[in-house]
């Protein structure tokens, strides 16, 4: 809007050409705008922002020692209307002069205060120095409408005199000694810690070696058992196979023995018994022949029967040899069979002799061969 002006947040608008409040020669406006009548009013702006001023001053202490002091002052125009009016009347045309004038004010107070203190006090009580400077300059700064936000002493030195260095030497020596003691203690503690660590490492290594040895022994034992398990199992299996083979061989031998008995021994025994039977028959033949020779009445008949008796026994023996006969008691059984055959032959002989007593000698001569052949064949 034409003629309406608004100051910046960090500035004060000064309107001249109109009476201000109180004794102020102009009107002060902050934080809001105002209508400016053209040609009748004039507007100027004063900064309310923070400003900075640096101070570098050579100061002489109470002991006569020259010190180089550097400080920084942070200040601004006060927020109240009276401070704005005071600052505007002094710095409105050249606002940069605020920093110059502030630096000079603080330089004077700095020299004055340092001149009343010793170097030791200045070094040890730097904050006290800053507070005294602020208190001494506060009234003067208020008169020109300025307030100090902060004062920071940046550095204090004595140039090449070495006073501050000499002053710090005892403390430095004590500090160095303490540092050496602390370093020695630290080294000792480190050495002890290193020794303890080495002992722990040795103990751990020993324990680890024992555990590894035990583990290796267990592994070796397990491997040995595993290695033996194969041959032992194989040997056990081979032993079982040999036992089975032995048992089979025994069974085979028993079967072969039975086969030999059936195929060789029994036929041989039967043949031997047949021969014995024939021998017995021959003996009986001779006996009968002797008895027949002693008998005159039946000489012819007995001789004929005697002649037929070996043939009867022979036929019976041949039948025994060809028969599938199982003898349970071996040679004794064969003897019994042979004896039975001979006894049967003799019984047949006696029966024939008794039966032929009532017949004629001629009929007996014709019929006897046929009757004898029949039982022998059977």
TrEMBL record:
The keyword Repressor does not apply. InterPro entries: Band_7 (IPR001107), Band_7/SPFH_dom_sf (IPR036013), Flotillin_fam (IPR027705). It comes from the Bacteria. Residues 359-378 are annotated as: Disordered. It is found in: Membrane. Residues 172-203 form a coiled coil. Gene3D superfamilies: Band 7 domain. It holds the Pfam family Band_7. The keyword Coiled coil applies. Residues 22-187 form the Band domain. SUPFAM superfamilies: Band 7/SPFH domain. Keywords: Coiled coil, Membrane. Belongs to the band 7/mec-2 family. Flotillin subfamily. This is Flotillin.
């Amino acid at each position: 809007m034409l003629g309406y002006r608004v100051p910046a947040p960090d500035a004060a608008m000064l309107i001249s050409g109109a009476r201000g409040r109180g004794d102020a020669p102009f009107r002060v406006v902050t934080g809001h705008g105002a209508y400016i009548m053209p040609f009748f009013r004039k507007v100027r702006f004063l900064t309310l922002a923070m400003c900075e001023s640096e101070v570098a001053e050579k100061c002489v202490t109470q002991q006569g020692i020259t010190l180089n002091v550097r400080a920084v002052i942070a200040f601004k125009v006060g927020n109240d209307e009276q401070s704005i009016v005071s600052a505007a009347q002094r710095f409105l045309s050249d606002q940069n002069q605020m920093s110059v004038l502030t630096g000079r004010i603080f330089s004077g107070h700095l020299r004055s205060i340092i001149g009343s203190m010793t170097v030791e006090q200045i070094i040890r009580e730097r904050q006290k120095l800053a507070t005294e400077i602020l208190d001494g300059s506060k009234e003067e700064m208020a008169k020109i409408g300025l307030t100090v936000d902060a004062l920071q002493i940046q550095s204090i030195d004595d140039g090449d005199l070495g006073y501050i260095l000499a002053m710090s030497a005892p403390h430095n020596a004590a500090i160095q000694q303490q540092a050496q003691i602390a370093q020695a203690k630290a080294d000792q503690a480190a050495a002890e810690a290193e020794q303890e660590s080495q002992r722990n490492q040795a103990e751990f290594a020993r324990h680890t070696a024992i555990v590894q040895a035990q583990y290796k022994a267990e592994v070796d034992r397990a491997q040995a058992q595993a290695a033996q398990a194969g041959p032992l199992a194989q040997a056990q299996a081979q032993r079982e196979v040999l036992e089975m083979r032995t048992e089979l061989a025994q069974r085979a031998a028993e079967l072969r023995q039975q086969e030999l008995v059936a195929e060789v021994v029994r036929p041989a025994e039967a043949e031997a018994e047949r021969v014995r039977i024939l021998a017995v028959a021959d003996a009986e033949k001779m006996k009968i022949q002797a008895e027949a020779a002693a008998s005159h009445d039946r000489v012819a008949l007995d001789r004929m029967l005697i002649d037929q008796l070996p043939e009867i026994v022979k036929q019976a023996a041949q039948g025994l040899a060809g028969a599938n006969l199982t003898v349970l008691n071996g040679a004794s059984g064969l003897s019994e069979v042979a004896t039975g055959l001979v006894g049967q032959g003799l019984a047949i002989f006696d029966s024939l002799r008794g039966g032929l007593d009532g017949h004629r000698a001629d009929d007996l001569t014709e019929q006897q061969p046929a009757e004898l052949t029949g039982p022998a064949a059977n």
